[in-house]
Amino acid sequence: MRRHCSFTISNPFRYKNALFEWSKAFKKVVWLDGNEHVAKYSSFDFLVAVHEQTDKSISFDSLSPLKSFVGKKQDWLFGFFSYDLKNELEDLVSHNFDGLDFPVLHFFQPSKIIKCIGQEIHFLYLDEYANAIQEDHAQIKALMGFEETNGVHDPIKIKMRIHKDAYFEKINKLLAHIHRGDVYEANFCQEFYAEDVSINPWQTYKRLNAISEPPFAAFMQLRENYLMCASPERYIRKQGTTIISQPIKGTARRDENEAEDEKLKQLLALDEKERAENIMITDLVRNDLSKSALKGSVVMEELCKVYTYKQVHQLISTVVAKVTGYKNPVELIEETFPMGSMTGAPKISAMGIIEELEETKRGLYSGAVGYFDPEGNFDFNVVIRSILYNATNKYVSFSVGSAITAKSDPEREYQECLLKAKAMRSVLETGG
Predict the structure, then answer these.
(1) Distances, alpha carbon 281 to alpha carbons 173, 199, 278, 336, in Å
(2) What positions carry a catalytic annotation?
(3) What is the pLDDT of residues 59-101, one digit of tens each?
(4) How many alpha carbons fall within 13 Å on the CB side of residue 13?
(5) What's the rounded Cα separation, in Å, for the pair 416 and 77?
């Protein structure tokens, strides 16, 4: 069904930039970039999946046909699950404002997949497009000296959906729920947005990605809908019968002074409140994975390990489990979605409470982007540190959040949100 052809390249970084430029010709694009982070569960350095003829592509906008296709292990699919899929998985609703108007989920079968592992470029083309491999490779190489000269956009004035006083009021309401025992922890999010604006999504993504160079970066275009994602977090991966989830909870800023930066890193590792957040969510993830895991197979590989990125230090835990080979991969998503790091504990109670307090639908924010492969494997990130854009509506948005626990201080949570918003806000407000 797919033709596989490989080439050796001498400069993967220049080839990556050329490949990104080449992919602009398509209306359906998913770009995944590990930004040279090499870890135990990495599978490629960067990858792009595109489709030639969007009107003829195999695509899915609902769970049932998606589950059927993936269960038959027919081919690759790329796409996303939005956070609001929760309303189909649980007895939940959302009536909040949605300026982006993304679908609840969308997956497509790409005509062309190109991925890089080390200095090897792998072309995986559907048979009917296989005769284009050599020509496409030549076109991409010809773009290796290309430099984008157009700016991103005019500077954009970003508005806050929830201002500081209202934020404090909502956090205090959430703390009242926690003190009553309704939830132990909940991730409260707020939107930053601009209306009637036009941006260059491709250049905006490149600038956003360059700020933090995270391990789960993604760019996506589905006609008028765009995602520019600089995520540091993996939601869930399936490799054979192994399931891996790596929740993030706990954030500290970086410092230019090496000694001060190391101090901030150590303080994060020992921070009682941040560790409590992480441990509660990690327990939730363990519980989610245990729904399908073989008895006794859920293992904590890492607990509250500090990972350092260009902008922040993060506390990350790694939970691994084993499942049977006949389990439908989409069912594993249904049992664990949305990810615990973006909801709270207990999960369903937390989702109901934050839905009441938040002002907007999250949409793709705190959803997941990734792929299913023909063997039933998959890998999905968590859509955070991301800009979302609807080119038809001329609406651009990014959201940030923090985990609220009994020990939360509203001022500290507010400052954490501003820290997380800094990169997206800078890219949009400075233009280029």
Answers:
(1) 21, 36, 5, 12
(2) 233, 249
(3) 999 999 999 999 998 899 999 999 999 999 999 999 999 999 9
(4) 3
(5) 35
